[in-house]
Automatic annotation (TrEMBL):
Carbamylation allows a single lysine to coordinate two divalent metal cations. It comes from the Bacteria. This is D-hydantoinase/dihydropyrimidinase. It comes from Phaeovulum vinaykumarii. Homotetramer.
Length: 484
């Protein structure tokens, strides 16, 4: 069975051209004109792009005394509905739990995925077992390790642990990631706010000013430099963090920043003079910022100092958010966005001229596939690549609403936003999973994508401690690029 996508314009991270795409056995078999297939998808007036990759989700994750509400089935269905064909979720060991043990839990949960997925592994504590198991984790195809510099007393790791883990990453050719907020200062500010009687959700924002993120981002970059590893900074939300990343990149350090669609399009006014539920539903870390920070993030995306756009999809129902009535520190941190990332970024980025279409593809898909060493199997429209594709209709419109979303929660942080630009078709390894507004996903279709250490991580020490990592051979994941 073959499928041909006809009459569309292919848009990749570097090219825009008219051609048909032929799909066989879940892969792109040919790109050209006059192609013939068993099934025909009409892309007249549409752009044919690599499906989105969301590098940052938390599906069915135990967190802050509860579980994030959307599981792998719902989460990947939401992803596909919005043109995203792959998610990278965080396996999160509870402190003291073995990494391989946590991985087993994530293996079990993810069997229901509708689209392909991969994992990052979180380092939530440190010890000999973690050190040893990191090698096994890399052997399983997970080459990225996330560290929380916040959530003191729970998930946070200290600087000595960060340095030890970063050095281990250097040995293994893995890439460390950080949630960069100064957890000590956040804990201090939170305690003070509570003691002064500030218990509402707006105090969450006051407890995490942009300085705590800027400081931690810079500290993580310096520690990575001393360990001789690149660094991926998740949910970069403010100018101070962007500034640290920008400076590091200017100095030849390999550091990537990942703004979220929420921080790009929603601001701190969502917390102030709003009803409790409205504000609490938008409590996430880092919190939403003001216009100045948003402008900085948009500039970073077009200027190339920030590399990808994610969601940090970690959805909690209103009922779950209400665990924090009377104490904002107990409001489960997290917001949804999987279904809305692509349409929102298209509308507010491409639609306003802040991003070109090619930049849109780069930051939603191709850059991510490259950093995570999945390119060109993922993130590409090339012969031999997986047929993870979106046929994008730039004229299609909708108003975002919880009443029509895939996510299982009872609200949407983008409620009421008008988007222009939506998938006409979304294909997951050739399987049509969304067609003309109808979601027709197949539970369990998604496969785990194993990754290998990439060129960036292997033997690419940063500015100073070059001796710590010896160069070693690199195995690229993908097919030899042909045809373009
Ligand atoms: N921030 C959130 O808002 N939710 C999940 C974890 C995180 O770091
Ligand atoms: Zn985080
Ligand atoms: Zn409201
Ligand atoms: Zn996260």
């Amino acid at each position: 069975m073959s499928t041909v996508i006809r009459n569309g314009t292919i848009v990749t991270a570097d090219l825009t051209y008219k051609a048909d795409v032929l799909i066989e056995d879940g892969r792109i078999a040919a790109i050209g004109t006059g192609l013939v297939g068993d099934e025909v998808l009409d892309a007249t007036g549409c752009y044919v792009m690599p499906g989105g990759i969301d590098p940052h989700t938390h599906l069915e994750m135990p967190f802050m005394g509860t579980y994030s509400s959307d599981d792998f089935e719902i989460g990947t269905r939401a992803a596909l509905a919005g043109g995203t064909t792959m998610v990278v979720d965080f396996a999160l060991p509870s402190p003291g739990q073995g990494l391989m043990d946590a991985l087993k839990m994530w293996d079990n949960k993810s069997t229901r995925a509708n689209c392909d997925y991969s994992f990052h592994m979180a380092i939530t504590w440190w010890g000999e077992q973690v050190f040893d198991e990191m090698a096994e984790v890399v052997g399983r195809g997970i080459t990225t390790f996330k560290h929380f510099m916040a959530y003191k007393g729970a998930l946070m790791v200290n600087d000595d642990e960060l340095f030890a883990s970063f050095r281990r990453c250097a040995d293994l050719g893995a890439i460390p990631m950080v949630h960069a907020e100064n957890g000590d200062v956040v804990a201090e500010l939170s305690a003070r706010l509570l003691a002064e009687g500030n218990t509402g959700p707006e105090a969450h924002a006051y407890s995490r000013p942009s300085q705590v993120e800027g400081e931690a981002t810079n500290r993580a970059i310096m520690i990575a430099d001393m360990a001789g590893v690149p660094l991926y900074v998740v949910h970069t939300s403010c100018e101070e963090a962007h500034e640290a990343i920008r400076r590091a990149r200017m100095n030849g350090k390999r550091v990537w920043g990942e703004p979220l669609i929420q921080h790009l399009t929603l601001d701190e006014s969502e917390y102030f003079d709003k009803d409790w539920d409205h504000a609490a539903r938008r409590v996430m870390s880092p919190p939403f910022r003001n216009k100045k920070h948003q402008d900085s993030l948009w500039a970073g995306l077009s200027g190339g100092t920030l590399s990808c756009v994610a969601t940090d999809h970690c959805a909690f129902s209103t009922e779950q958010k209400r665990y924090g009535v009377g104490d904002f520190t107990k409001i489960p941190n997290g917001t949804g966005g999987l279904e809305d990332r692509m349409p929102m970024l298209w509308t507010y980025g491409v639609g306003t001229g802040r991003l070109t279409m090619n930049e849109f593809v780069a930051v939603t898909s191709t850059n991510i596939a490259k950093i995570l060493n999945m390119y060109p199997t993922k993130g590409a429209v090339l012969v031999g690549a997986d047929a993870d594709l979106v046929v994008w209709d730039p004229e299609a419109r909708k108003t975002i609403s919880a009443t029509s979303q895939q996510s299982g929660i009872d609200y949407n942080v983008f409620e009421g936003k008008e988007v222009k630009g939506l998938p006409r078709y979304t294909l997951s390894r050739g399987l049509v999973s969304v067609a003309e507004g109808k979601v027709c996903t197949q539970e369990g279709h998604g496969r785990f994508v194993a990754r290998k250490p990439g060129e960036e991580a292997v033997g690419r020490a940063l500015s100073t401690w070059k001796a710590l990592t010896a160069p070693r051979p690199v195995e690229r994941s993908g097919i030899p690029a042909s045809g373009v």
